[in-house]
Specification:
The chain contains six helices and twelve strands. It has about 240 residues and is an alpha+beta fold. The protein has two domains: about 190 residues, Bira Bifunctional Protein, Domain 2 (BirA Bifunctional Protein, domain 2, 2-Layer Sandwich); about 45 residues, SH3 type barrels. The protein has a seven-stranded mixed beta sheet with strand order 1-2-3-7-6-5-4, with helices on both faces. A hairpin with a 2-residue loop joins strand 5 and strand 6. Helix 2 packs across helix 6. The relative contact order is 0.15. The protein binds biotin. The site of biotin has 21 residues, from helix 1, strand 3, strand 6 and strand 7. One of its GO terms (cellular component) is cytoplasm. It is an enzyme of class 6 (ligase).
Length: about 240
């Protein structure tokens, strides 16, 4: 598989989208530094030296409504690799991988579809590996951590990347060959969101209640105070207590 390596890009997701139509599935775009790294919900993603900023091009040929499943697949793969290092990685819906309640990884999935079939999916994965937290502006630093800070030692990024790509491929094969409920069960076992009181903000409103489950498309199911349930496919999630 091809790897496009850059010292610096605006955003590996943007580069990956530019080349996705003509590249094979599995192509990787990776950079040391991103100058315009993008997070979910229009946020900025600070991407200094020492992290892993990458995008994987996939061509799963699935309906567009299933594209968000790949976010769960990627989050599970990242969490598994970090857990294999002996750290207690957990997943906060929809896509944050956290250690001791602090974020080490974010995932931004972008898809292009023709009618309802996905042409390609770009899985953008940012992992805070060896950088100093002081390289992150203070307004972004709260609630973040790095693998190095949690492990107490420097991480070999190349071997971490090899382990991750291997694990992602395993999960992707399962995604394509098994009922999605298998991946969902593994994801649920690592989720620290289900069972919590949450407050989810979407562009149009705020929903509060208890996170009680996840739908096969990755939507969070919230049971509200009036006992009705609501499914939310995208939003910002805060743990209320
Ligand atoms: C989030 O938690 O808001 C998602 C963050 C995603 C960051 C990664 S870094 C590689 C790829 N390129 C980007 O511009 N963003 C993603």
């Amino acid at each position: 598989k091809k790897i496009h390596y850059y010292e610096e890009v605006t955003s590996t997701n943007s580069t990956a989208k530019d080349i996705a139509a003509s590249e094979e599935e599995g192509t990787l775009v990776i950079a040391e530094v991103q100058k315009g790294g993008r997070g979910r919900l229009g946020r900025e993603w600070v991407s200094p030296h020492g992290g892993i900023w990458m995008s994987v091009i996939l061509k799963p040929g699935i309906p567009l409504r299933h594209a968000s499943r790949l976010t769960l697949v990627a989050g599970l793969a990242v969490a598994n690799v970090i857990r294999n290092m002996g750290l207690d990685a957990r997943i906060k819906w929809p896509n944050d991988v956290r250690i001791n309640g602090k974020k080490v990884c974010g995932i931004l999935t972008e898809a292009k579809a023709e009618v309802d079939r996905v042409d390609y999916v770009v899985l953008g994965i940012g992992i805070n590996v060896n950088m100093d937290l002081k390289d992150i502006p203070e307004s972004f630093r709260a609630g973040s951590t790095t693998l190095k800070a949690e492990l107490g030692s420097h991480i070999k990024r190349v071997s971490f990347l090899q382990d991750f790509l291997f694990e992602l491929e395993q999960q992707y094969i399962l995604f394509k060959t098994q009922p999605f409920s298998h991946i969902l069960n593994d994801w649920l076992a690592l989720s620290d969101t289900i069972g919590r009181e949450v407050k989810v903000t979407t562009p149009s409103r705020i929903i509060e209640g208890k996170a009680v489950g996840i739908t096969p498309d990755g939507a969070l199911v919230i049971r509200k105070a009036d006992d009705t349930k609501e499914e939310i496919i995208a939003g910002r999630c805060i743990y209320a207590r």
